[in-house]
Design goal:
By secondary structure, the chain is an alpha+beta fold. The chain is built from 10 helices and 17 strands. Among the domains are: 74 residues, Ubiquitin-like (UB roll); 59 residues, ADC-like domains (N-terminal domain of TfIIb); 41 residues, no CATH class; 54 residues, no CATH class. The longest helix is centred in the last third of the chain and has 19 residues. The protein is elongated.
Length: 379
């Protein structure tokens, strides 16, 4: 282990660790815009500069490897003024319309501008990037808010492996682009939304959250994604009406960090779908025989389940879970006793946990005595 001193604290670090990593692990906040723990080092924003005893010039902490006996300062008058000058340059090419911005309260540039008392730029204000692209149903790209931190580019190439975007042009013409600035759908984008998650400003925002509430007004609920058995942790952001606005990875879990697939990040609209089943349903003729309903009903020649988007209320009645499970257990036992275990088949789901699927197949193999078991992901 390496011993070093950061802001008067004696700390230990593993060999190969950077000063930024050690500082963050010990609760020391170093301002940064382009750094992300899951991305390759860029060092482009220059906000994370620190002073090292014995060295004549400040150094970017995100790329500075720890050495034995280092004495590091993350705060000083000189560093404050340096960061303030950088922020002054950033806002000279960035709208300061925070009062109507959807990212207000969760924007890193806004946060650091507040901390360094940047109300307006001292330079000549000029927007070099004005392109607004709303070419897909998942997120918008508003280039006027982009600070060219390259987080979106790096997460797309180095984490996702899609290489759908890149920084093109030079100087004031530089901007993040798809090939030939074409629609996102024509690129190699897989619409995982990881670029939206890591964006520090309002350059990338989920379409579903636009104009639906300010960040500090939203409630956040942590859960586990239900789309497969991996167990990715997710955080749902909801407005005052309880409507889900967007989903993010939580970042502090060992399964997925902040990264999610397309389904996990955008496939939550089923929650409020009018077609969603919220209780077990029993066919009306079966319910009549069991005395659950007093309305007689006969199964039509064409099964209601073979009709596209059927109206289940006309052919089924809602029942409670105890009634449903008792009926299934009774019918399973009756069929297995009369016709043998191979008369039954089980189909498990990729949306269950691995543990649930294990118990399910064990139930069929050990209790019902059949290997007629399959999985929805394979069919």
């Amino acid at each position: 282990m390496i011993e070093l001193n950061i802001d008067g604290q004696k700390l230990q670090a593993k060999d190969g660790s950077t000063v930024m990593e050690v500082a963050m692990a010990n609760g020391i906040d170093i301002p940064h815009l382009c750094y992300h723990p899951d991305l390759p080092i860029s060092g482009g924003c220059r906000m994370c500069m620190v002073e090292v005893e014995g060295r004549p010039f400040p150094t970017t902490s995100c790329s500075l490897l720890c050495e034995e006996g280092m004495d590091i300062r993350t705060k000083s008058d000189a560093l404050y003024e340096s960061r303030r000058d950088l922020l002054d340059l950033y806002v000279s090419d960035h709208p300061l319309d925070c009062v109507i911005c959807d990212k207000a309260g969760a924007c890193d540039l806004q946060k650091y501008a507040y901390e360094h008392n940047i109300k307006e730029t001292s330079h000549e204000f000029e927007l070099s990037r004005t392109l607004y692209q709303d070419d897909n149903p998942f997120f918008i790209r508003d280039h006027q808010y982009c600070i060219l931190c390259s987080k979106c580019v790096r997460v797309c190439s180095d984490v996702i492996g899609a290489n759908a975007i890149e920084i093109v042009g030079r100087g004031f013409e530089s901007h993040v682009a798809t090939p030939f600035d074409g629609p996102m759908i024509n690129s190699d984008c897989v619409f995982c939304g990881s670029c939206v998650q890591v964006c520090p400003t309002a350059a990338l925002l989920p379409v579903a959250r636009l104009g639906k509430g300010r960040e500090w007004e939203l409630d956040r609920v942590e859960s586990v994604c239900s789309y497969c058995g991996v167990g990715c942790n997710v955080e749902y952001a909801k407005n005052k009406e309880g409507e889900i606005l967007y989903v993010e990875g939580t970042g502090d879990n060992p399964v997925n960090g902040e990264m999610l697939c397309t389904k996990g990040r955008y496939g939550w609209d089923f929650v409020t779908s009018p077609d969603r089943l919220t209780s077990p349903m029993m066919r009306r003729d079966v319910a009549y025989k069991l005395g659950i309903t007093d309305e007689a009903w006969e199964l039509p020649e064409k099964s209601p389940l073979k009709v596209r988007r059927p109206n289940l209320d006309s052919s089924h009645v809602a029942i409670d879970w105890d009634t449903a499970l008792d009926l299934v257990a009774t019918e399973f036992a009756k069929a297995a006793k009369q016709y043998g275990g191979d008369s039954l088949m089980g189909l498990c789901s990729a949306r269950c946990t691995n543990e649930d699927n294990y118990v399910f197949q064990k139930f069929f193999r050990a209790s019902i005595k059949t290997n007629n078991i399959d999985h929805c992901a394979r069919l």
